[in-house]
Amino acid sequence: MVGAVLGVTLIGGVAVAQWPGGGPRAAVEPGNTVASPMEEQSPRPVDPTPAKASGDPGRQTGPSGSDGSDGQKETPVPPSGPGTFTAARASGKTVGTGGPLRRYQVQVEDGAGVSAAQAAVDVQAILSDGRSWAAHGKGRFQLVADGADVTIKIATPRTTDKLCAPVGDTGGELNCEVAGGVVVNLKRWVKGSPQYDGPPAEYRHLIINHEIGHLIGYHQHMGCPGPGRAAPVMMQQIKGLDGCKSNAWPYTAQGTFVTGPPAP
User: Fold this and answer.
1) Rounded to whole angstroms, how far apart are CA atoms 176 and 169?
2) How many CA atoms lie within 13 A of 262 on its CB side?
3) For residue 90, what are the β-bridge partners?
4) DSSP one-letter code for 17
5) Nearest alpha-carbon partner for 175 in 57, 17, 7
6) Residue 74's pLDDT is what?
7) pLDDT at res. 52
8) Quick check: helix, strand or coil at residue 163?
9) DSSP β-ladder status, 101-109 and 140-143
10) CB atoms within 10 A of CB 65
11) Which of 129, 132, 134, 259 is most buried by a 10 A CB count?
12) Which of 82, 218, 219, 87 lies closest to 151, judged by CA?
């Protein structure tokens, strides 16, 4: 279901790959090849505003609409695109105080209907949240316009399938972890997941946190720790919750790591 940005794991399936520096990863992109990014006009700083933390990671802000669109008019998702990407010309302050620094860039496929600049703000806000990895010494992350170590790409379902093909079948539905970054399925970014008890915008938190988790060393997926408990962020929640409550954050607002048994 749904990280340097991040590497990404098939949020629906698993394949083994190698990240620069060693360590098995979940999915590998075909050489991280993307057409020369079309860049927005000029770099601009991002002042990340962390999302408001809730006391219980299993308690979400509210159910999504029946169409999976948070009760709002559904945003259309183009099934395919040209395979070229626009890079967000944005930069931000380093988030986190411990661990290696990973500079990341956010790119959006042209014609996807999503602003690369806004997507960069969204990702930066997720990584700045007190319930995310950086706040707990698991790494430092910085949004950059150029010179990225990792790239987060938001792509249409068909383009996602092509980029993820070497590591597995994403079936127009899933995300994947790739060499040098992550590929996020536009459908999941816009519509969320039917399994996630929260608005689509909140499901984005799970996508990013799950994939960053793989990047920093949580290679093994986790299972539900028990009925009614919060699902670990490293659980493939898009495949079902097994009685757990959906949760998009690795830590609670009180700083407790949300864990579970190794997934089979």
Assistant:
1) 9
2) 4
3) 44
4) E
5) 7
6) 61
7) 32
8) helix
9) parallel
10) 14
11) 132
12) 87
Report d(CA 135, CA 1) in Å as an integer. 23
Provide the pLDDT for residue 197. Answer: 81
Per-residue model confidence (pLDDT) at position 23: 34
Detail the DSSP E strand segments found in the chain: 17-18, 24-25, 38-39, 44-46, 85-87, 90-92, 101-109, 140-143, 150-155, 176-178, 181-185
Which pLDDT value is given to residue 176? Answer: 85
pTM of the model: 0.71
* Alpha-carbon distances of 252 from 62, 199, 202, 248, rounded to whole Å: 18, 19, 15, 10
> 161-171: per-residue pLDDT in tens?
999 998 788 89
For residue 90, what are its two tokens?
Answer: 């944005």
d(C-alpha 11, C-alpha 175), whole Å: 5
pLDDT tens-place string over residues 249-263: 999 999 999 999 999
Cβ atoms within 10 Å, residue 9: 34
How far is residue 47 from each of residues 23, 26, 205, measured CA to CA in Å? 33, 31, 18
Q: Is 154 helix (H, G, I), strand (E, B) or coil?
A: strand
Could you give the C-alpha distances from 250 to 34, 104, 106, 246, in angstroms and in order? 30, 20, 22, 12
* Residue appearing with tokens 């600049």: 117
Which tokens belong to 147?
């010179």
How many of the other CB atoms lie within 10 Å of CB of 255? 10
What type of residue is 144?
V
Q: Which residues of the chain have pLDDT under 50?
A: 1-73
Kindly calculate the radius of gyration of the chain based on its CA atoms and give it in whole angstroms: 16
